[in-house]
Amino acid sequence: MNKRQNKITIVDVATEANVSFGTVSRVINNDIHVKPETRERVQQTMERLNYVVNRQAQKLAGGRSNVIGLLVPDLGTGYIGEIIRGIDSELTLSDYDLMLYTTHRTASKEAGYVFSLAQDMVDGILLVLPRNPVDYTGTLAKKKFPFVLIDHQGTGKDCPAVGASNWQGAFNATDYLIQLGHKRIGFITGSLDLGAAIDRLDGYKTAMRTRHIPVESDLIYEGTFAQPDGYTGTIQFLNVEQPPTAIFASNDCMAMGVIDAIRDHGLKIPDDISVIGFDDIPQASLVRPALTTVQQPLEQMGRLATQMLLEILTDTDSKPHRIELPTQLMIRDSTAKPKAVQANREVIP
After folding, report:
1. b/e 132-147 (16+ beta carbons within 10 angstroms → b)
2. CB-based contact 278:294 (threshold 8 Å)
3. Are 323 and 304 in contact (CB under 8 A)?
4. Beta strands per DSSP E along the chain
5. What residues pair up with 274 in beta bridges, in sequence order?
6. Most buried residue among 31, 94, 231, 283 by CB atoms closer than 10 A?
7. What share of the chain has pLDDT > 90, as a percent?
């Protein structure tokens, strides 16, 4: 009766199962050097006593916490949701739980969380779109603490990371608009302290120059990947002397803001202005008109990053590497030939 009222400890489990404290610890840590019948007896005892593992105490005692730390910028977009879905799907196949932190895109908070988690709280860390990983990846590597960056090109050749071909995706999307006949193409960047945002801007610029179209500063707006930036950037574009006939937003979230701004000005998509996004979040195919966008394999990125981290945890000799997944242009209803091209085509015999 007293045991039910007080917190059950590992000693209680060992006593009830008639095994040593060390045997219970090995069962908790999934040590292979435990007889199957002994393991089953200990597990049944833990279940009967409602014993809950103290993860932090387990880690401090030299074992594993069986917890993976996950740092994300925020929880407000389908982009993050798809990546987490891939991570969660992969972790359900293992014995690991997930501990989630949101950094709100604050570099100091991100670094603080990383160092806190690495202090005996989790076995490894996944970081989605990290803001300034160079601040801590070197320290983690020296400590041989497992981590993987997601949607990032890594901080060096030995930095484990999973990303997508951001430059190529942006190049292809911009070139597609040019082939439709657009020459004035507005571009809304993401946070330019992030590699993915820089690669997408470079892809856009390269496509324009390849087609001998000048890159105009008044058609580039620096955003932060947040939806309001899409709206504000579009308003700025519409106020220039020659507004763009197409707008390329660095992510789908900002593309939604672009769509709202165009409609608020009484213009139609794609009749007056074409719109392209990047990511292909679930909402992209549901808005009307359906959004043309660059598809990143977000769920797969989450899965592969988790697999890579688990491999590092189980094989200390595994060599860190970077995986770059291909992107794909998803052509939908938000893009069309500009009116001038359409008009010219009508009079050509």
Report:
1. ebebbbeebbeeebbb
2. yes
3. yes
4. 67-72, 97-102, 124-128, 147-150, 161-164, 185-189, 220-222, 246-249, 274-279, 292-295, 322-325, 328-330
5. 246
6. 231
7. 60
Going by C-alpha positions, the residue among 116, 147, 119, 117 that lies closest to residue 133 is 147
What are the structure tokens assigned to 306, written together?
């988790």
Residue 164: strand, helix, or coil: strand
> What are the chain's domains?
2-53 (1.10.260.40), 67-164+298-325 (3.40.50.2300), 166-296+330-347 (3.40.50.2300)
d(CA 232, CA 222): 10
The model's pLDDT over 155-193, given as tens digits with 9 standing for 90+, comes to 877 799 999 999 999 999 999 999 999 999 999 999 998
d(CA 299, CA 111): 25
Tokens of 265: 């000005």
Which residue is listed with tokens 């106020």? Answer: 239
Structure tokens at 219: 């058609």
Q: Supply the mean pLDDT for the chain.
A: 88
- DSSP for 58-123, please give it: HHHTTS---EEEEEES-SSSHHHHHHHHHHHHHHTTTT-EEEEEE-TT-HHHHHHHHHHHHTTT-S
Tokens 């809304």: give the residue: 188
User: Would you say 199 and 152 are in contact if contact means Cβ atoms under 8 Å apart?
Assistant: no
Checking if the pLDDT of 131 tops 60, the result is yes
SS3 126: strand
